[in-house]
């Protein structure tokens, strides 16, 4: 939770990035494998940041691409391929890397909720910060 808050606050935009969504799990005991959390955005913003192809290439092994495709579809992004080419080269796949950069880093979810697919527990997103805190009876 702390990592997410720090990540969101580094930027001048206040929203949760889709990169962050790709890393979140339900913190409730017994539901750690309930991945991915369903994303229901109600307010999104876009913030242009400088493109860095090497950074995007470095991120790709760390993300679940199918989850990214799902999250992208919830915010209206439909231009990503169903599968990534392997290997990705920063000089040959510039357009793809720019689309991934935009999707992972420039789209911010400011309001909405995350929903666990197994427990159906909702985690609100307010002012760009997902509230993953548990009630006492959930610990």
Name a few traits of the molecule.
N-terminal domain of TfIIb; globular; 139 residues; alpha+beta; disordered N terminus
Describe the protein.
It comes from Lotharella oceanica. One of its GO terms (molecular function) is protein heterodimerization activity. Belongs to the TRM112 family. There is one protein chain. With 139 residues, the chain is α+β, with helices and mostly antiparallel strands. It has one domain: N-terminal domain of TfIIb, CATH 2.20.25.10. Helix content is 31%, strand content 19%. The chain is built from five helices and five strands. Strands 1, 2, 3, 4 and 5 form a five-stranded antiparallel β-sheet that branches. Strand 4 and strand 5 form a beta hairpin. The longest helix has 13 residues. The radius of gyration is 15 Å and the shape is globular. The relative contact order is 0.26. The N terminus is likely disordered.
Tally of helical segments? 5
Helix content: 25-40%
User: Class in CATH?
Assistant: Mainly Beta
Biggest sheet architecture:
5 strands, antiparallel
CATH architecture descriptor text: Single Sheet
Instruction: Kindly report the average pLDDT value.
Output: 88
Q: So what's the overall shape?
A: globular
- What's the CATH topology label? N-terminal domain of TfIIb
Distance from N terminus to C terminus (CA atoms, Å) equals 15 Å
Number of domains: 1
Strand content: 15-25%
How many DSSP-defined strands?
Answer: 5
Question: What is the H/E order?
Answer: HEHEHHHEEE
Unreliable runs = 1-12
Classify the secondary structure makeup into a structural class. Answer: alpha+beta
Radius of gyration: 15 Å
